[in-house]
Amino acid sequence: MPLDTSTYALAHLRLDGRRWNELRRLHAQISTQAAADGSSYLEQGNTKVLCTVSGPQEQKGGRGGARDQGNEAKVDVEMNIAAFSGMDRKRRARSDKRVQEMQVTIASAFQSTLFTHLFPHSTITVTLHILSQDGSLLAACLNAATLALIDAGIPMSDYISSVTVASAPSSDQSLDEMDPLLDLNGLEEQELPFMTVGTCGRGPGGGEEKVMVLVMETKVQMARLEAMLSVGIDGCKQVRGILDGVVRSHGKRVLESKVS
Amino acid sequence: MTSLKRSHASTSTGTTLSSKTYLRTLKSGKVQKVVRELYLRQDIPCSSRLCSACLDLAPGGFHRRSEPAVLSATPSATKHYPEGHYLVPDTNAFLSAMDVFEIEGNAFQDVVVLQTVLEEVKNRSLPLYNRLIALTKNEGKRFYVFFNDFRLETYVQRDAGETINDRNDRAVRKACAWYAQHLQQAAKSRKSARCPAVVMISDDKDCLRKATGESIIASNLETYVSGLPDADRLIDMVAASSEQRITKEGRSQLLYPDYLTISAMLTGVKNGTLHQGIFNVSPYNYLEGTVHVPAFDRSLIIQGRENSNRAVSGDIVVIELLPKDQWKAPSSKVIEEEDVGKNESAEVDEESPEGIVSERERRALQDEVKKAHGQSTEGQKQPTAKVVGIVKRNWRQYVGHIDRDSVRSRNSDSRAQQTVFLIPMDKRIPKIRVRTRQAGELVGKRVLVTIDSWDRESRYPVGHFIRSLGELETKGAETEALLLEWDVQYRPFPKTVLDCLPAEGHDWKVPASTEDPGWQGRRDLRDLLVCSIDPPGCVDIDDALHAKKLPNGNFEIGVHIADVSHFVKPNNAMDKEASLRGTTVYLVDKRIDMLPMLLGTDLCSLKPYVERFAFSVMWEVNTNADIVNSTFTKSVIRSREAFSYEAAQLRIDDRSQQDELTQGMRHLMMLSKKLRAKRMAAGALNLASPEVRVQTESETSDPVDVQTKKLLDTNQLVEEFMLLANISVAGKNFEAFPQTALLRRHAAPPKNNFEELSNQLKVKKGLELRTESSKALADSLDTCVESSEPFFNTLVRILATRCMMSAEYFCSGTQAESEFRHYGLASEIYTHFTSPIRRYADLEAHRQLAAAIEYESLDASLQSKSKLEAVCKNINVRHRNAQMAGRASVEYYVGQALKGRVIVEDGFVMRIFSNGFVVFVPRFGIEGLIRLRDMAEDGEKEPEGVFDAENYSLEIKGEKRQAKVELFQKIKVKISDEAEKSTGKRKIKLQLVQ
């Protein structure tokens, strides 16, 4: 197996044998924990996330506190990265900057997609447990949270689906030719400039399509951004289709059990 | 409760999921378990033109370009495979015989490189991997990389208990089987009768046996090559296969101690019991090497063949310190391999009863030991170590000649295989044993070989022959030899590079209309009186100058440099080639350009009377040569005249010339003297190196005479302004890009570098060398004079130069700002800017300066610290190699000029050994060794020498004459040339004349 991304230029095959526009295996289940109001389990390749939602419930920490937003529900995200999830056993403090940043990103994305105005003076808590990490962590968390929130029955305008895109040189003759790569694994993420895209809505006929999340921490040349973004949005649509399938098959099963 | 079930439904059709788990050990000793996914697919093409099914299979990349099939439909046939064949070599085939695969012509075409093999090659040797990748890019060779580990049918899961090598072998066999079956199908569907065979190449016996069992066509490399039409020539290039080596192992004793395991070395280095460093062999004594390790101030000595344990000069080794009672003093004796190991036979090496250290070698070393013990001063001894392991071999290709004595049958028609010794040109490299069938033909030729291995039972490394460069002593062969030896890229520029040149060719002109995009951001300086001053016959004119008196009494000075970055855009093929070459290499009769001729000598060159694009640095300076302000701009200039140094000097000195151009040159001269004085006051060093010019006959370029280079004031004029421009640009670039400016620094030499020289001066001449700062050194060098001998000062300067560090390019973000200093020039910051035609560093500096003045945006490659570091590393090496090649070329021509002549000249003693001394002859810039043995007349015994290490003197007590030689002494030497008997090689010989 190749050890770094430089072989991509040879045959347009990535480190794990995928082509540029292929997602990893995405497997998801909902209603995995009966005790929670909503829950989901999602695997994107070897990135595995368990998500539970509790709420909407009365706001913690006393009524009328400084953080009470009054007429709409507040989305709280807690993220728990298991010490065994990475290659090295490493405990991450909850105050870790990167974790905090992801929490804020996820919270603010759902804050505007959920119909929070229906639940004044309340909190919706999303808890994410990361069991295994292999790239696209933020994207997997967003997807898992979407499913769990649907399971919890909280009304929202559409799925938030998310995916990562990178830019890799596609030939070693000239540096200008870059291929966007979809859904990165851990190794690719370390070597290539990438961003996480999250969209909401299906576009024409299925409601307005909006980019809800766009996070990029690496440098990339301006000219390459457009191709990356369009491939990313397209990837989000594919993810949305898979998530939709999971929800529908679950719904079908629930209905069938009710009928019989 | 719901249970979590893993579903194995794949997300896209045509792929199947598998995963791979393995353990790896990090450098820190930590063990990691890595789990990676693997998506197996069926759309990876076989890439044979025979197969129509695969053609439209591959989806290609984002840009939707599908790649054409690589392998020919009608591959060449051989004796064994009459219907044509595709080759599938295994890893060892590439590792041991990459040269064979690279051969031009009909052999070794249509090769399938399996992913398994490619990755193994990459793990084992990066240079070989890069050569293999280059082969896959070469359209004529038709090498195709087949990603067998990603294809469903050819993927092989490692079984429990199976070694990784066995698994890889199995993967290769499976891929071969698949290919054979796939091609048969393809041939059937095409109804073609011919179906090429798929031939696996492996030297592993076990693998070959299994292959036959699985009915895969397989062959070892030697059998395969012997079936080719050109077998005789090719078979030498195939390294002695491992099979042969195994049979030998049985009967021969192991001469060398085994290396430690990698983990033992790593732990040892980590906890400080072992040390790691680069093994350097002394040019005077092939049995003594040094390794510099960070833990010790002085280099550690490694003495003797057993202690150096198969390390070759340049290898990165791990060493263990010997107990203190085995410490030695550095050798004071010259030992050359040619003398000591003369009678060894390449063939019978294994049976020789002597062990590793032959009797003669032992005697040579014993003298050493005796002396080391006898010495009263303990301080003479230095830490001594032995090699216990090799981290990285640094073997390259070596140029040398076949030792005539080791050839069994001199009959040039003999095709019998025999083992001969190759004596490398580089004295520090041991003899190499080479098996060849063409020994008779190769005697007396320059040959290129490579080392394959050095096993414990072999006294010398084993290598194989690559090609012959031609007769010894011929100009062509010797020039090519030294270019290869110093790794100078001398092949003509490939077409992709020439395609980057402007389409107009020599007719290219500066656009007439100033509206043209080429004029954008350029200043029109065509009315300035610019001229260039260069060595006579110079065609690549990098720089031109002008000076003008301003109404306020100040001067305007301009340095105009060829605007190469206008023509060479970052990252195109030409830029890549230039960055590889790094520099133009000047040999006596030849110039190996960094850029194609059209640019170097015409379009970029600031030729007189024509308009050229330039990059100008302009200053306003006052009469004291202090800079008032400076500007940088891209410009268009028209040089009025191209002077040689002599012509410029004459013009300046000629009082009758009063035109404006000459006036300007006089201003320049006046200011340059002031600049120089200022620089000297700041502590710049005036160093010397023995430089000579070889005068050649214009027609045949045969050398006729040798002259030492003359220095005129105009040389210094140009130098001063180039330094000024370089310093100004360095400052500007650093200000604009504090992290990524490409600069040049010259580190202050460590104090103990000068220890020996300063001690020698004190003992012999009573002079003191102060080295605490460059200023102190410069001043004390000025005091090292001897009124009777003007050359003595130059000699000291030459010796002092050898104690210095070498200057290097670096990227500003990698060093602390205090480390930027250029010691020799006594400047806080420095870069190279003024010769972009012949140095790549200057071209990069141009690009950075252009971005700093916002003329154009900076390319991404110049913003990345890691990329710049890689560029610096390469050009540092190239720069040094170019110098070495240049020197070697001068040396060769000096030798040719002296051919057949006998001259008596003055020489100076530079270094004294116990059995000889080194003499430097300033007239020819040559340095030669006179051994006691050489002083004996015919039939006479070697004179006795009494060596006094503390007073640096050697007393010679011969039968007929007595003499005493002291360090720095001026002596008369007779210079003649002599053809060596064993090699037929001509050598300059020095003899002491009383």
Automatic annotation (TrEMBL), chain A:
Keywords: Cytoplasm, Exosome
CDD domains: RNase_PH_RRP41
Biological-process GO terms, alphabetical: nuclear mRNA surveillance; poly(A)-dependent snoRNA 3'-end processing; rRNA catabolic process; U4 snRNA 3'-end processing
Gene3D superfamilies listed in its UniProt record: GHMP Kinase, N-terminal domain (3.30.230.70)
Name the UniProt record assigns to this protein: Ribosomal RNA-processing protein 41
Record Pfam families: RNase_PH (PF01138)
CC annotations in GO: cytoplasmic exosome (RNase complex); nuclear exosome (RNase complex); nucleolus
Location, primary (coarse class): cytoplasm
Location of the Exoribonuclease phosphorolytic domain: 22-155
Family per record: Belongs to the RNase PH family.
Molecular function GO labels: RNA binding
The organism of origin for this protein: Recurvomyces mirabilis
Subunit details: Component of the RNA exosome complex. Specifically part of the catalytically inactive RNA exosome core complex (Exo-9) which may associate with the catalytic subunits RRP6 and DIS3 in cytoplasmic- and nuclear-specific RNA exosome complex forms. Exo-9 is formed by a hexameric base ring of RNase PH domain-containing subunits and a cap ring consisting of CSL4, RRP4 and RRP40.
From TrEMBL, chain B:
Domain S1 motif: 895-993
Keyword Iron: no
Annotated InterPro entries: Dis3_CSD2, NA-bd_OB-fold, PIN-like_dom_sf, PIN_dom, RNase_II/R, RNase_II/R_CS, RNR_Ribonuclease, Rrp44_CSD1
Positions of transmembrane segments: none
Cofactor needs: Mg(2+)
Source superkingdom: Eukaryota
Entry GO CC: cytoplasmic exosome (RNase complex); nuclear exosome (RNase complex); nucleolus
Gene3D superfamilies given in the database record: 2.40.50.690, 2.40.50.700, 5'-nuclease, Nucleic acid-binding proteins
GO molecular function: 3'-5'-RNA exonuclease activity; endonuclease activity; RNA binding
Keywords carried by this UniProt record: Cytoplasm, Endonuclease, Exonuclease, Exosome, Hydrolase, Nuclease, Nucleus, RNA-binding, rRNA processing
Region of interest (Disordered), ranges: 332-360
GO biological process, one term: nuclear mRNA surveillance of mRNA 3'-end processing
Record localization: Cytoplasm; Nucleus, Nucleolus
Family: Belongs to the RNR ribonuclease family.
Name the record gives this protein: Ribosomal RNA-processing protein 44
